[in-house]
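for the writeup, i need someone to sanity check this before i put it in the appendix. the sequnce is what the collaborator sent (i think, or maybe the updated version? ugh). structure was predicted straight from it, no edits. if anything looks off just tell me and ill rerun, i have time this weekend
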Amino acid sequence: MTTPPVDATTTPAWGELHTHYQEFRGDLRGWFAADPGRAERLSHTAGDLFVDLSKNLVTDETLELLVRLAHEVNLPERIEAMFTGEHINVTEDRAVLHTALRRAPGTEPRLVVDGQDVDADVARELEKMSAFAEQVRSGEWTGVTAKPVRTVVNIGIGGSDLGPVMVYEALKPYLKEGLEVRFVSNIDPTDVAQKTADLDPETTLFIVASKTFGTLETLTNARLARAWLWERLIAAGAIDDDDDAKQAAVRAHFVAVSTALDKVEAFGIDPANAFGFWDWVGGRYSVDSTIGTSLAIAFGPDAFRELLAGFRTIDEHFRTQPFESNVPVLMGLLNVWYTNFLGAHTHAVLPYAQQLSRFPAYLQQLTMESNGKSVRWDGSPVTTQTGEVFWGEPGTNGQHAFYQLIHQGTRLIPADFIAVATPAYPLTDVEGDGKAVQPGADVHELFLANFFAQTKALAFGKTADEVRAEGTPEEIVPARVFSGNRPTTSIMAPALTPSVVGQLVALYEHITFVQGVVWGIDSFDQWGVELGKKLALEIAPAVSGDDAALEAQDSSTAALIRYYRTHRG
């Protein structure tokens, strides 16, 4: 059994942080004016990531106390426990070893956990996945009519969807010409219907991603996809309408990411074409496992290994760097500071990179499924607020939507701004508008000017006197004042390469872990998603017309079901 959590609120550091908070007055303008070295001192490098923490609402004393808190809740020991395979996922009695998915080949000593040679198992599945990806990319793997694959459809949900689709969008400039990947996740039939509507069944490959091969949404969509394949192939005259032809089509057009080989085979997929992963890989931590099969096909095994190398770079930084300069540790502790002392409820992630458009959605599962807990890992109630609502959209879209609330609203919203120096598509506005945009303007530079301006505006604001100096009528001066002291972290990288994407994901994985340790919670189970799924199965008969099941419902649920049954077209 793992050791009980330390109650952070009983530590000396927490008490000193509370006293510090009571005397705390954020003053980013004053701090920067009085301390020319603040930006340099509070900026750090982790791999290819340059991380500027200087616009956060912290002093050197704040950071010193937060680092002490990390030691007092035994964060160093918890980090080692995770990396070495202790069963820190207590409620499921499992190790937590997503970091093992990206260990360098040949690392010594070898990682053996519960009698399992983890390194050998990971290497075997990676090689199997890579070989399959090369078959598809080269055209060696063909459909039932001997045509090569042009479209891959990944069917999964949660971590089997959010991770792959996020990385696919992020790395789309690396996509092999002639290939496309689509993602089906929602059980809403609209999703699978629209994603398959214009596809050629003879050149489509489906990947069914479900560890247990029992996820309701995924298996329902897989059956719908199988029915679509049969119907379209038969209509095209590509196969006969008989069981043998249908089964041959499934074997040629479906593979699985699962360890439930009996269920895979019962569906009609050849178990030899199933790629496995392990119970010590949580779904939201699985994009670097065979759950990324669609990515290995889209970008190639070499790019996938580069993605893994990026993860590994941050793993090593997290495991070895002193906390005073350890970026995931510091960012996790800052989130604790904002949540537990400054009263923040949400956290914005604002990528100034359109390719990272799905990154905030990915982080929603990573952070909120991990740390949305009200009991600690020993079953006792938490003693602090836990978790934040993560949200965001790419800049500059967000500037024209919700930045108003961040700049001038009454709520404190810490925000992470993410940008890259070199764009995938370096375009020039040849004509310009002759005013704000000069002819020949580098559009990425215009874009990043917004990135730099927003964090500056949030930090330093604009005073009433500065507004008046612009000639603003007195009656609207208050409306144009910006208070400043709105905290941001800026993260920059040279370019959005596979390695950098891996580094960004690992960064937030470890930020999430740090917060969970401070709060004493198990960040690796997700029992909160189970009750609704169980009730859905119980309610389904009532929806379908079972009056006895309907009468068993509460009055609100029953009324809603009756409305549905009356109005269903």
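The mean pLDDT is 96. The domain at 112-301 is CATH 3.40.50.10490 (Rossmann fold).
thx in advance!!
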